[in-house]
Structures are given as structure tokens and as C-alpha cells.
Design goal:
Layout: E1 2-6, H1 15-24, E2 29-33, H2 46-59, E3 62-71, H3 78-95, E4 99-103, H4 121-142, E5 145-149, H5 157-167, E6 172-177, H6 178-183, H7 188-195, E7 199-204, H8 225-234, E8 240-243, H9 260-274
Parallel strand pairs: 1-2, 1-8, 2-3, 3-4, 4-5, 5-6, 6-7, 7-8
Length: 275
Amino acid sequence: MKLAFSTLGVPGLPISDVVRLAASHGYHGVELRTHPEEPVHTGLDLTARAEVAAEFKTAGVEILGLAGYARVAAPGDDEPVLAEIRDLLLLARDLGAPFIRVFPGGDSGPTPPGQDPGQSTEEADATAARRLGTAAEYAADLGVRILLETHDSHRTGADAIRVLGPVGHRQAGALWDVMHTWLGGEQPSASFAALSPFLGYVQVKDIASADDTTPLALGAGVLPLTECVDVLSREGWDGWLCWEYEKRWYESAAPLEGLLSAGHNYLSQLLNEAA
């Protein structure tokens, strides 16, 4: 398996510094958080896109994927969501990234007293499947794969496959965020069994508890990272492990830069032991 980290852990850091961190700490790739407050976003012109791609290529570091924020199960019209996905796909094509990340973002669940009912689970699933099916056709023309992250309204593998199964398109896959499947009460073996036909890559991280999701150094918290790597290794999966350290949302968290070497060593140890 190859190792990457997400720029969610180094918010706003210039691309040249991101590339330097990856190369100097032994990471094969980087997941780029794609947002207007970051150096890489869909508003970049073609020259800027070429410059970003060239910096990574020169350093021998891969752009694993673009972590976008389109919400495929969200209520409302399809076209704004599809337009957001198309913009992400074009950016990924221009940067040479094989994947983009989208969120479910459904509005299903219990309705608080006095509020209008939200989507049903079935409505959220159908909306997400319809949009992903349409977007996957566009993605196929560009050679990029759309990955639905286990997150928010669809946090487990069982939730995600209710969407991906009906889509049935190679360009629509899954991104396994191990924190969210764990928070959803799903064992790593069950998550992998559900997601394996669709799996693009895996996001790893660590936290203190279900009530305190402040990011920690890998191995310092409660997430079943050993079990996840064991399952992946046992099943012969050879994709990417990407460390998503959520520094952007937790200003008090330790800087990622000082943790990267230890994180790389920790994941390498897990891989060696699983082998």
C-alpha cells in the first residue's frame, strides 16, 4: 500500500511546502483539500493548474485526489450539485489526479418538533444514486473516478452501498473514512466487505473518543487502525492509505508537520506486521 496525507492537516500551506513535506517524510502522495481558502480550487486557471501539476511531478509525489465538498444526497435541484462535481472532475483531469471526493450530505433522520420533515432515507439514497450515475458518465470521459466518502448521513459501508450498488458504474466508487464507519458502529471487516467492490482509497486518522474527535497522532487514540490494515492486507488490497488529520477544524491540535515522520513510521509498522 502507498501512503499519503491530506492538506486538511496543513490548512493554507503553499503547494511548494506541501510537496516538500511529502517528499521529505516519505509519503508517496497527497490528497488536496479543494476549497477557495486553499491554494488548489476550481477557480484556478490553466496556467496555475499546470504549475501545480509540475511541482508534484518534479518532486515525484502523486496527487492522490481532490477532496471536494459536493453533497450528492442533499435536498434540492440536481444541476448545482452536478455542476460542482463537473468542475472538480475537470480540475482533477488537469492536475492528473485519479480521484475526487464527494460527501453524501443527506438530510434524512428524525425530524425535530415543529420542523418540516426532511428527506427519508430512501429519498436521500435515490437522490445520491441519480446524481452519481449522471456524474459518472462525465467522469468516464475524463478518466477520473468519483468517490463517495463514508460520512455524515451515510457514514457506514452498509449506508454507502445502498447508493453505490444501484449506480453500478465503475467511475462511482467509495472512500472509506475509518473514523466514520467506527462511529457508525461498523467493524472494519464489515466495512471492507461492503466497500471492497467500490473502494478507491482509505482515510486513516485517530481520535481520543466518540465524544472527542480532536485529531491525534496515529496510534495515540481509539480507532481500530491495526484491524483496518490487517483486513486490507489479508484481502490483498494494495491501494492508498491517506492520513486525514483534521487540523483545519481543530485549531488547538498539534501541528501536523511535527507528526508526519512518526505517522509514516506507524503506518509502515502496521503494514509490515500485517504482512
